[in-house]
Specification:
This protein is 51% helix and 13% strand. It is α/β, with parallel strands linked by helices. The structure holds S-adenosylmethionine. S-adenosylmethionine (SAM) binds next to helix 8, strand 2 and helix 10.
Length: 276
């Protein structure tokens, strides 16, 4: 061990061994340690966000996360759905995808937050706005399945209104309906409402007595976000949770928290939440 350190010290090796490659090695080792430390901190910070929001110990969240990571058939079916429409889609090993935030390369991290929230809260009714291809919906549905209770009502625009039917939406796989990613075995708890949330959210809220968890991820304009928060809050049960993606898009989330006199809980990943 001591010998290795001595060997890696530039003063010791100067002039004897190819210094450039050793320094390169030292640098990359240092950046790996730095990266690992940073990612671990991000992960811990993120679990702390959920723990604070729901009032569940981090220890339980770690268990739910471990359970998700062990569920290889879930990841296999999700990857199959992705690859069937985007054959060149690149996946990181799923442990990385679920444990580290998007800046670390994950496409799943935000959705994993929803999985953990749903596991920890055990809701009966979850409402989500902005379902798109169904990535976040799939994680919510898997959590409901693991809880063996609850349903998801998810709102997105009609395909005609999204531009997905023509070339405006270049990344959308041609001919695929909304929520195309949701595997068949998770659809029994899924209720999709297509149309503008401005009309469909109030309509839905008239239908139900109350609900447990609300997630905004649709139109991130100031007016629309405020509209959704104000519409959803009165029907959210006491103790229920409202979370919003992209709270940095404008000040609506913070203004709403003031309006309802709640202290926001905010994650590093631009997610915010409050408990009623
Ligand atoms: C950021 S994407 C949602 C991503 C999704 N949650 C996921 O995890 O993949 C935003 C979605 O909001 C939808 N959207 C935008 N404005 C909307 C509105 N007024 N009502 C309902 N959905 C809307 C868009 O069609 C789009 O699919």
């Amino acid at each position: 061990m001591f010998r290795t350190i001595k060997l890696l010290h530039p003063d010791y090796v100067r002039g004897r061994i190819d210094l450039t490659s050793l320094q390169g090695l030292k640098l990359s080792l240092r950046s790996l340690v730095f990266l690992k430390k940073n990612l671990t901190n991000l992960r811990k910070g993120h679990l702390a966000f959920i723990s604070k929001l729901v009032g569940v110990k981090i220890h339980y969240l770690e268990q739910y996360l471990a359970e998700l990571n062990r569920n290889t058939s879930f990841f296999e079916s999700l990857e199959q759905q992705y690859l069937s429409v985007w054959p060149s889609h690149r996946f990181y090993p799923h442990f990385f995808e679920t444990n580290y935030p998007s800046k670390g390369g994950s496409v799943f991290f935000q959705s994993v937050t929803m999985y953990l929230l749903v596991r920890a809260m055990r809701p009966n009714v979850v409402i989500e706005t902005g379902g798109a291809g169904g990535k976040s919906s799939t994680f919510i549905l898997q959590a409901l399945k693991d809880n063996q209770q609850g349903r998801l009502v998810t709102l997105d625009l009609n395909p005609e209104a999204t531009g997905r039917l023509n070339s405006e939406y270049s990344w959308w796989p041609q001919g695929q309906p909304s929520y195309f990613l949701v595997p068949d075995n998770l659809r029994n708890r899924l209720d999709i409402r297509l149309g503008d949330a401005k009309t469909n959210l109030p309509k839905l809220l008239e239908e139900i007595d109350s609900f447990d968890l609300f997630r905004h991820d649709s139109d991130h304009s100031y007016e629309h976000m405020l509209f959704e928060f104000r519409a959803a809050w009165p029907m959210l049960r006491d103790g229920g949770i409202l979370v919003s993606d992209d709270i940095r898009a404008n000040t609506s989330f913070y203004e709403f928290c003031q309006e309802v006199d709640r202290e926001p809980v905010v994650s590093l990943q631009a997610l915010g939440g409050i408990q009623k």
